[in-house]
Amino acid sequence: MAAAASSLGRSGALEITRRLTAICGPPFARLGGPADEVAGRPARWVAVPGGPHAAAEVLRLAGTHDLAVVPRGAGTKIDWGATPVQVDIMLDTGRLAGIGHEPVAEVGAGTPLRAVQATLERTGQRLAMDAPSPGATLGGVLAAGEAGPLRHRHGSPCDQLLGVRYLGADGELVSAGGGAPGLDLARLLCGSQGALGVLVSASLRVQPVPASRLWVSRPVWTPLEVHDLVRAILAARLEPAAIELDLPGGAPRPRSPYPPGHPAATVRERHPSMSGRSGAPSRAGSLVVLLEGGRADVTERAERLVGLLHGEATVAHSAPPWWRRYPFAPGDTALLLEVPISDLHAAVYALRDAAGAPVPVRGSAGLGVVHAALPGALAPDRVASILAAVRGVLLARQGRCVVVSAPAPVRQAVDLWGELAGLARLRAAKEHLDPQHRLAPGRLPGGL
Question: Whose CA is closest to 78, among 139, 166, 23?
Fold first, then answer.
């Protein structure tokens, strides 16, 4: 495929540009620029089709010339996952947008999630989704399998799917849903990074906006203490909407390579994941429980929870600054740890032992799903040794540790995924849905 793209020559490249312009319109097709990269791999062209049929034409054009296509939403997670083998056409879904919500939400894949929520809130409704990436599109959230604190009670966004419309690698528009087999296919696209199909729209459940929300917080000092508190909270049957953990790191972060005032330094400082991060982390972490529902009911449950957590607990009407924020910043090596909740403390201790100091950890303690951050300045072999040690501990506990994002030297030197039980099923799905490996080749585990 790479050879086919490089052999086009100048006249062939001009013809592709002309065809993309005819499909998408003059302002919406162009050559790729410095910002059009997928995990470090530059795109040759960028196409922004105005609807599903135009997107299908882009895919058919790619098929005719044996070109690789990688979908992009807002690009908030474009550096997540493996680097594609080739990015010939970046298919931007920004114009595949729109919202309908009677009686369910039918949302275009290119619609920003915050725009969907703002529209639904006018009718007193919401999607039970709170993905951390600011500006993320619905399609991007689904394609990355991203979820926020509300997954504790409502499941991930993929769990809330009623159906999807997507484009296959051959440009055929397919509807999936309306029953178990269809939903299985729809949910298979979740987390696939656009490598199994190009999402066009999704149908999702809506629910009334809660009348009241309270956040009950308690300082925590050790992973074992978190383990005991989470067990107590779950046993109390308080129906929490979320149980989130924030554990700070134990050493100063590496100095920024940029001088004060440098644009890159400013971008880093303003990145949402830097909320609550400082050179000298505080000693205590936080365990925060979100309660939602009717006002009287939420107040009563909050009082019970404060009693359960003893005198150190506090109640607030707004979330802490780190809520819905990842613990990693641009340039860090970002990890995802998933483990049974009874073993979350063991996973965090293993990470601390391997790293030689407490590591920033944040996420859904009530589900055993958390993110962690290793400094980007760590040498690739050091990151590899940390991963090997942590994965060794998690393997015996039916858990896993995945590298979500990392600097290029680390990405090239380590196994991003570790052992994956579902690799055979994923390979079969890729061969069935994209036998020519035209969609985001190499983006999935196993080089798929």
Answer: 139
User: Which two structure tokens, joined as six digits, stand for 386?
Assistant: 């940390």
Q: Within 10 Å of residue 272's Cβ, how many Cβ atoms?
A: 16
The Cα-based distances of 285 to 4, 140, 153, 220, 358 in angstroms read 53, 30, 23, 5, 11
CA 173, 179, 182, 186 dihedral sign is positive
In angstroms, how far is the first alpha carbon of the chain from the final one? 14
Question: Mean pLDDT lowest for which of 68-72, 344-348, 425-429?
Answer: 425-429
As a whole number of angstroms, the distance between CA 299 and CA 278 comes to 34
Chain center to CA of 233: 27
The Cα–Cα gap between 143 and 421 comes to: 20
Residue 140 host element (H or E)? helix 138-144
Rounded to whole angstroms, the Cα distance separating 134 from 324 reads: 10
| Band of pLDDT at residue 1, cut at 50, 70 and 90 | low
Total Cβ atoms within 10 A of residue 141: 29
Between CA 151 and CA 384 the distance in angstroms is 30
Cα 334 to Cα 160, 392, 425: the distances in Å are: 26, 18, 26
pLDDT digits (tens, 9 = 90+) for 32-80: 999 999 999 999 999 999 999 999 999 999 999 999 999 999 999 999 9
- At 271, the pLDDT band (50, 70, 90 cuts) reads very low
pTM of this prediction exceeds 0.70: yes
For every residue of 75-136, DSSP letters joined together read STTTTSSPPPS--SEEEE-TTS--EE-SSSEEEETTSBHHHHHHHHHTTTEE-S---SSTT-
Q: Which residues of 227-256 are buried (b: 16+ CB within 10 A; e: fewer)?
A: bebbeebeeeebebbbbbbbbbbeeebeee
| Tokens, residue 90 | 């970046």
Q: Tell me the pairing of strands 207-208 and 198-204.
A: unpaired
* pLDDT per position as a tens digit, 196-216: 999 999 999 899 999 999 999
Residue 205 or 421, more confident: 205
Task: Name which residue leads in pLDDT, 334 or 163.
Answer: 334
Which helix H or strand E contains 72, and what residues bound it? Answer: strand 69-72
Residues 6+ apart with CB under 8 A from 409: 380
* Residues contacting 14, CB < 8 A, separation 6+: none
